[in-house]
Amino acid sequence: MERFQGILGIFLILGIAFLFSNNRSKINYRLVLSGIILQVVIGILVFKVSPITKFFQLVGHGMGKLEAFARKGAAFVYGGIGVTQPGGTLGDYAGGGFVFAFNVTATIILVCVLVAILYHYGIMQRIVAVIARAMNFVMRVSGAEALSNVASAFVGQVEAQVMIRPYLSSMTKSELLASMSGSLACIAGGILVVYANMGFQAGMDIAPFLITASLMAAPGALVISKIVFPETEESVTMGRVKMEVKSNYTNVIDAISHGAGDGFKIAMNVIAMLIGFIALITLVDWILINIGHLFNENFDLSLDYIFGKLFTPMAWAMGVPGQDVNNVATLLGQKLTINEFVAFKNMTDHKVPIVSEKGIAIVTIAIAGFANFSSVGMQIGGIGELAPDRRADLAKLGLKALFCGTLASYLSATIAGILM
């Protein structure tokens, strides 16, 4: 029955995208079909082919090791601070225990340093270019949008656009939307590792699902964006994928320094964003509860209650088991309107518990992306700095990109749920 729900979910998601298309007669159905097939193939490889499944499980455990390595750096800085250790005793932070701000900051910084080193030696660019060529061959999309969508699985949403900076001014509006949608549907490597480790701390191995989400997001975003805004112009990068491999860093020490600095900025932004959003949510919930009590003293109205009602049809259509539908719907709402960090934290802290493995898989893939309202503003501002002449187009496409990025994540999650 849940597989049947998932099939209905695919038609629902594609139908919503078709309904909001600005030019239905120009939709490239070959591109749409090839993109969905590519997502299905990725899902089958990850979930059904034993050697590949084991490989991604090993990669997931490797992410756990990164947190341990990052702790060594954090322990030097935060050593001497008393925190609760495993077993309930109080001890030095350096000896164990988990403090969100310390652990998350350290992990993001380490991953950003590793990415900067790989970028300096041209490894990152070559990996992205190879995958982009494969996607370009299968889906017949332009080189620029293939590159930016694949790059978004490795680096941040603005950093991915840096890789196609020479083309930004000449990209068509359809390409711009596809590029923006991919960045919102994907999740940067550093943040992905953080979420994996949040899962490990809660006894949940969600790393394979996060990797699957990252791999499926690029073709999914192209499928949805090309339905919503089909290509009607001539792309200057159609049929070719070319990337500048040259490093912007003087040497590897310069790369490490910049990577650490960039990682720290991202980490501080994450911490500030969480403090602000969670405090604001608490305030709004207090107001809503009091409003609810005016009508019924037992009615605890809250954002979670509202999200649970609004997103229930989509959660059901994605194939979520019945016992988890309401809580998955709540997490979908939190991710879209607040951010994915809050949704992941509530899931891994079991404040919004998901009990079935299939429910965990579907919601993990569905919320593993940057598609929320605050990210749209950051993206418009960031890409606008790279291509000032496209600011007006970026502003017009911002909400469309949010819409496409969200549906792309839902499409990946639905396909994954059918295959489980």
Automatic annotation (TrEMBL):
Keyword annotations of the record: Cell membrane, Membrane, Transmembrane, Transmembrane helix
Question: Could you name the domain of life of the organism this protein comes from?
Answer: Bacteria
Q: Where would I find the Concentrative nucleoside transporter C-terminal domain in this sequence?
A: 210-417
Could you tell me which Pfam families the record lists for this protein? Answer: Gate, Nucleos_tra2_C, Nucleos_tra2_N
Q: What is its membrane topology? A: Multi-pass membrane protein
Q: Which residues cross the membrane?
A: 6-22, 29-47, 98-122, 176-195, 207-229, 266-289, 360-380, 400-419
Q: Where is the Concentrative nucleoside transporter N-terminal domain?
A: 8-80
> Could you tell me which residue ranges the Nucleoside transporter/FeoB GTPase Gate domain spans?
102-198
Q: What subcellular compartments does it reside in?
A: Cell membrane
Q: Which family does it belong to?
A: Belongs to the concentrative nucleoside transporter (CNT) (TC 2.A.41) family.
Q: What is this protein called?
A: NupC/NupG family nucleoside CNT transporter
The record lists the organism as Chitinophaga nivalis
